[in-house]
Give the backbone structure.
Amino acid sequence: MSLHTFRVRAGRMAMHATTGALLCSGLACSGILDVPNPQAFGDDALNDPIILKTVTDGVEGSVHQAYDDFIIVAELNSDDMESTSTWIDWEDVSEGRLRHDWPTGGAFSGPQDALLRARFAAQSAKARVNRVLGAGAATSPLLAQVLAMDALSDLLIGMGWCEGPLAVGTAREPDTKFFTQAATKFTTALTTAQALTDAAAKSKWTNVAYAGLARSYLLAGDYAKARENAQKVSAGFQYDAIYQELAQSTTGNQFHQNRNRSGGLRRMYHSRVHEIDPQGTGEAYLRDWSDPTVDDKRMAVTRKAGQLGVNNRFAYYGITKYSDRNGPIRIFSKVEANLIEAEADMLGATPNYQAGADIINAQRARAGVGLPPIATPTDRASAVTAIANERQAELWVEGHRQQDILRFNLGASLGLTGHAKKLPLSRTEILNNTSMTDGGGSCPAVY
Amino acid sequence: MYTTRSPGRHVRFRVRPILASAALLLFGATAQAQNGVIAGTVSDLTGRGLSAVRLQIVGSQTLATGTDDLGRYVLRAVPAGPHVLRATRLGFRPETQNITVRAGDTTRVNITLNESAVELSQVVVTGTGGAVEKRQVGASIGQVDASKLTEQMAVPDVGRLLSSKVTGLRATTVGGGVGTGQDIRIRGTASLSLSQRPAVYVDGVRVDSRATEWFTSGACCSFGGGASTDRLGDLNPSDIERIEVLKGAAAATLYGSEATNGVIQIFTKRGRTGDRPTEWNIGLGTGFQELRHNLQTKEFPRFVGIPAFGGDGTRALDANETMIEKGPYYGIDVSASGGTARSTYYTSSQFSKDVGSIQPNDQVKGSLRLNLTFAPSDKWTIEARSAYVRDRINEIQAGNNWTALLGNAINGNPRSATKKRPYGEAWVPVEDIKTMTTQSDVDRWTGGLTLNYTFRPNLTQRFTVGIDAVNDHKDRFFPYAGQFGPAGVTNGQKNLGLRNYKTYTIDYLLQYNFKLPFSIESNLSAGGQGFWDIESLLYGIGNTFAGPGVNSISSAATTASREEYTKTINMGVLAQNRFSWKDQVFATVGLRVDGNSAFGKNYGYKRYPKVDLSYDMMKGGYLPGFISAARIRAAYGEAGKMPGPFDSFTSYASTPVFASAIGIVPLNPGNADLRPEKSVEKEVGLELGLFDDRLGIEASFYNQKTLDAIVQKQNAPSAGFTQAKRVNIGEIQNLGWEGSINYQVYASARMDWTSGLKLDGNENRIIDLGGVNLGNNFRMPLIRKGQKTVYYPIGGVWDRKPTGFSVKTTGSDPTLGSCTALTYGCPTTTRSDTVVYFGPGLPKYNVSWSNQLRYRSFTLYGLVSMERGAWFGNGDRAYRIRQGGSDEYLSRLGPNGERTFRADSTAQFASILNYIDKRDNVRLREISLAWQVPEGVSNMFRVGRSSVTLSGQNLMWWDDCNCVDPNMNWAGASSFSFNNGFLMQPAPRVFRLQIRTRF
């Protein structure tokens, strides 16, 4: 074949190939590479009034989802709960070894990550509700819902961790600023809730906002505003994180069975346990802090003779409260509001020990608790003892104790010398937030 | 080489199966008067017939055939006149013979092939670009003679067929039990996030090769822990003729956006036109497998359960004595092949049952295959292939799993032993786990149709379509009565899963050979290739039964279901031209252009160019006489790796919230600019044949870089979105070398001895993470934020290390209690504040040494492998000690179990540190003794060539890791989670007896 013939043939072939390719790409194959994802929504698809409630429920559900894990790590770093696992992460938290900018993710990072993401989801949903509903957003329960969750996320972050970012991608700030920011956000949520026309939603979100404000001001040290808002929480009010077992998804309460005997009652309290039936049901209670002759039914544990923790090192006392994988966990309640009011009475600017003790005793006498009254404190020290012990019992494994030990400076008396006061900032946030530098932390401090 | 014209062998009896008759009726045999027939036998030096030899009339695409199991062949419809007949087979030096065919006559040509340590003249398929001699290709291509290996020893699956056979290819059992996954990867790890399994094609059809768990829903862990099933295990090794491995981007460029990790091409057997219509081949196998008795529970029987640890006086059991069993194996495979001048068939069926050493765990597999070839005219050849397999695996509960069977038995505390928990099981009693059902049941059909059309001898086209359809039905059942609390199961649970996977392949190739000026020959290939990949996953869960006696989801108190779906479409066009100058210098240039549904919507098409060069130094005539073959080569090529199907989409996901509501949460920030990862590979190599090809040396050096590596750039949690954004900002490098030496130490009709040494090394490192810190995902928390240059390997092992030791005499220790109360104080190891780097998670060096010694009719074969340089988190070791078990800890207790300084020192160490150990090991991987039954004996039983093979695999290994098996991974065949051996059971020793006969 001559070079000329080859060129002619090669040219024809190239022409045919090119024509075929163009036909294919321009006509027959057009759009062939478009594949939809049938199991997720795009951003635009959510700008639809029909779907909006699902978006805001997703926000609230995310906070609930994070709440049980928050409780685990916050309680492990307190005197309530102790690691009985073989996980080094849990043991590090339980032993209070944590220091600032902890070199591994640790068990404590995930819950803070989840709360930060829930906060983002709340803010994103707030913008979407305003965008989709326009002027109608102001009276929509959906807006009140996401505003409350935005505030609650900040409150829980402040309760658990010594620092964090106050907004998307901002620098680290101390926990105290989270309490004031939470108060501001709850105030906004309250305004929106009060404007609602739906009575049930109005009641729910108004109470959540008051309870949130009461706790935020309490932790920020403003007893007057804490008492003022606590008193406005309706009698019998309770707001829970709700879990479900469906699909064995991660929505199940992770505190259940204290994560398979990986965490249990701290050893310092084992001697306070009264085993009702050591060889049988395992039913047991801690003795009342005030009157050791009676059991405090609020502090139920499960003790089976001879049972060890997963670590096989020491006796295991499971915490019965919230041991049901499907069971809700209390976030806010009138009971807590009452304790806030009692604390404000006893430790506020003008102490009224009797008023505080009366509130506490009323709670102890209520059905299902039935404990004898405490002695009325006579000074600030005994008032602190009373309120701290009562809060420990009433709000047991609800994530308060770590902050209370810090607030009431109980570390030394509880033998927590050298123990981290709070959880350090999530490593995921440090590494991926451009406003933060690795190694730039200064907390948590230790007792 | 010699050629004889001898009378054909006398056929003692014939079997005419219905299938053969049908084929004959259907296709007919239309000998034409102007044509003739070539027939004969191809044998080795001993006179033994060689199967799978390809015989081809040089210059013709269609005038080709292969030998049957006895080495016989018939080539019909050969035009009368002079021809050159060429015979090639893997492992043998090709031979050509000038012959003259007379019209209407049969020309007998018997050929003897000499074994060769050099494989330069073998024909390889080189991806979608068409077949070519290996010496003409500049990139490295590995070949495995599967038909020979399956003859040599009973091979359970494809993974073990590849293990230690190809340099640069790692095929390692990582999951222990029967039917579990194998880690298969080529030339290191080339991605930070995408699967590292090579693409697998069977006869040109893309097939499912998943080896990671897909069933992720359920109360506990994944379906069978980390011991997921491996779809490559569905293939019947006896059906495979050969395997070609395109090792990297330079070799696999024409496979486009899925070729970064190389491509494994499997070629199944075809029908042969021997001198009898049907050739039967029957294999019978039996044997067993058994774990080594090296579990860390030998001290257990010293102890009885004591109340302080929850025990009830029961003496603890040693898992070595009570858990390990001999798992039996039975198997039979039957194949038949034959044909006429214009049609051939190969059909096979296989059935086997393989029981694991830790039970319940077994695999029952049956398969059927039919490969047909039909040439309706001299221009057309039609190939149709159909394979069906049913693969039912009772999966082992292993891996990072509360219900790990062996994990519970060897990680307990013997002092906690009770009648119910005789191993002191910390989580779930072994006797309860044994009541669980964990089953994977697969129906799979793989079919393909290839049309070849020869316009002219130098202009051909090939069109292939195919489908691989897999239905995997998974079924896990926790009975009502078991103590499955730690697994989150109370009063029973049922899980059902259905995976429906289909991949469709379409492939077109036009080949045109022509001559250019200056003695240049050109071979142009152009075409297109595409695939559709569709996976649908369904899950059903029923939790909590009312009582024993029911086991369906609908009988549970709460039920739920879930569905997942992915689809990927890839379309590519390709063109390649091979230039040959004086049959001495070969150059190839090629280009593939891909579009893919997974690319971001702002991204267009991806181009992958390639070029390679090969120089056959023997043609120059200037090399000394002892060099019988020599060539040098170089190659450059690019290939890609497509992102996950929906990685580029911004998406929000539904999630259950509250008691019975649905919520939507931010999931994936998406990336509209997402593009495939691009691997750029440069490779140089040489092959030498010395002393008449008795000594073969091969060496390759490669530098592969993955550019645009997809990094999962985690959002700061404060910025929302659970999933990380995928961005093309990474860069990875794999530097490596591969070498092999094959030596025919001695060869004669009475005895021969061949020895082969394969070595490879790989240095994997991350060059750039684009300022992203992968943190704990890659166990590299030490990397400082914003650090651009990384230079640590993917999956490297990082952890805290011990920094000192002291004895505390005051205070207390969380593990040991009061130090004052201990007469010897508290032995206290301290640890580093930060994690440090120990080493890579995969071996840096691999060596395998094989020997085959034949004396008369006996052949002894053995293969030893060695791995060096890898580290892993020896999770079990620390875990056992923390729980108060392990021989390591128990042996340091006093005679009556009392605490000692050494025991406390071990306990305290394990309470704050993980054990990081080396994976280095030497393994007796394969050994076999085969006896070729003398012809006289075979004739007595009226059968043809027969053999009896006794083989063993994984019989022994030597390590220094204080672990049950240094190759185990807690996550099975995961591409990246390979640096921890937690709770996985070791690979068993496998013993097999195989009898194979033909008639």
Remarks:
- Residues 901-912 of chain B form the longest helix (12 residues).
- The first strand of chain B starts at residue 3 and ends at 4.
